[in-house]
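#structure-requests
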Amino acid sequence: MVLFVVKKKSSVEKLSEAPNENPPIENDSQKISEAPTSPAEEEYKTPLDPPTESVDPNHVPYLIIGAGAAAFSAYKAIRVNNPTAKVVMVTEENHLPYARPPLSKDLWLTKAKSFMGMKFSKRKEEVPSLPIYFEYSALYTDLKEVTNNKRGGVAVLMGKKVIKLDADKKKVILKSGEELTYDKCLIATGGKPKNLPLLQKASPEVKKRVNLFRTVDDFNHLEEVTQNAKSVAVLGGGFLGTELACALSKKGQTNGMKVYQIVPETGWWTKVLPQFVSKWMSHQVEREGVEVIYDDKLFSAGFKDGQLELELLKGRLLKVDQLVVAVGIEPCVELAKTSGLEVDNQHGGFRVNSELQSRSDVWVAGDASCFYDIKLGRRRVEHHDHAEVSGRVAGRNMTGESKPYRHQSEFWSDIGTNVFIRAVGITDSTLPTFGVFTRSQNKEGNTNSSENSKTDKNSQQISTLEKKDNSDLEEDLDKGVIFYLKENVVVGVLLINIFRDLLIARLVINDGAENEDLYEVAKLFFPHPKDDLEEEPTPEKEKPQISESDKTQDKKS
C-alpha cells in the first residue's frame, strides 16, 4: 500500500408510506404509495387485550410532532422503557414514518418494480439492509384505539399540522382546530427544502417544472416527470444535488436524458473538502456522465417552446425540460412564533439543553434541534444518523432519564457507484486539514506513485511534498482519511472509500489527538492489503504490486 500525506494551512495562517407489495407502475416509473402490509396484518391488528374503560380521546401521554427518523427513533426508545406507552405522532405528510436517504440514493439505482423489497444500507459492505419504511402498517393504530388500549401502542395522524404548542397548559392546536393535550411532547419537525426567490416569483409554466426534493411525494413526482424528459438541470453542489445529478444521469443512460449540474462553487463541496480533493471528486461526478458547470449561478428562468430557459450569471443559456433545486434545507421552526420557543440566531433550530429539552416536558430532536456539544460547541446537524440518535436520547429522557446528548453523528453519501464518503464531527474546509491517502492502480495494475513522493527510512512513511495545485494527485486517489483540526485538536474526520465503522473516528475526536502523529493515527483506518483483498477480491491480474518499502510499512501498521 502506498500512502501519501497532504497538509493544508488554514486561511488564517495564510494571511464539513412505504410501498405496497405491488404499487401501480406508470410508464415503467416506480412509485411509492401507501405503507406496506404484512401477510399477517389482520392477526396483528387484533388487540391482545380488550380495550380498557374509555379515557379522554384527546389526551396523549406521549405526543410527537413529526414522523421522520427522529420521531420513530424516539417512539422505539419510549416503548423500550415503557412497554405500555401510548404514543401519537402528528405529521403533515400522508405517509407513515420512513427513511429519507434512499430517496436520493438506492431507489434510483434499482430496477425492481416492487418497493416492498426495496432496501438501503448506510454502508456498502455486507450488512443487513433496511426497508425504506420503518414498519409495516399493522404496527400503527388509530387515536381512539391507542388511547383506550391498556397495552398502549402508536398512532400516526397523517395530513395534520400542529400550529401552536402551549407548554404551560401542555396542549397543542392543529390547523384543523382540533386540540390534543399531552404529558410529554417531542418536536421532531425536521427541515424543508430551500428555494430561490427568483424561482418563487417565476411564471406558472416555470414553477410547474421546478422540483424541490425532500419527501416520498417529491421522489414519485421527479421519477415520473423525468421518464420522458430529454434534459434536466440540477441546481446545487451539495451532497443531495450531486447524488440526484448522478442518479438522473444513470437514468439518462436508458432514456437518453442529458443532465447538467450548476454548482456556485469552484469545485465539489468546497466548504467541506480540501481543494484538490474537491477537484478529484468533481472528476468522479463528471465520469458519471454529468455535465458540471462550476462557479456559476442562476440569473433568470423563463419558458419558451415547451422548455425552461435558464440564463446563468456568466451568460450561458441552458434549455431543459425540468429543473431540480437542491440548495439546502432550513429547519421547520414555525412553532417558535406561536409557542414562545427559543430559536438559535446563528445556527437556526430550537435551542435545547444537553438533554435536548426546550421547555418543561418539551424536547426537540433531529434537524430542528440546536444542541450544545461539549467538545464542539453549539451545533445544528442535518443528518439521518443524528436524527436517529437524538430521537433515541430524547425518547429515553421523556420516560424519566436525564441522558445528555454526546453522540458525534455521521453523514454519508454515495457519489455514483464508485465513491463512498463518510464523515463525523466538524468538517469545514477553512480549518487546517491533514490527509492520508492510498493511490489507485494504473492501467498496468501497478500502484501509482508521485514523482515528489519520498520514503522516510526511519518510519517508512511515504509522503507527498506540498504543491500549490496538487495537480498530479487529482486523478489517482483511491482511499483516504482527512483530519480537520482546530487549535491542533482533531474536531472532524472524513473517510473516502473506507467502509469501516466510525468508532475509531469518534474516539479520535473525543480524545482530540492533540500533539499526536496523525500519520500514525491514520493507519488505524487502513486495513492491511491482504485484508483489503479479502473484503474486495480482485482478479489475479488486477492485484496491485506491493513494493518492499510498502511491505515494511504494512507490517509496522
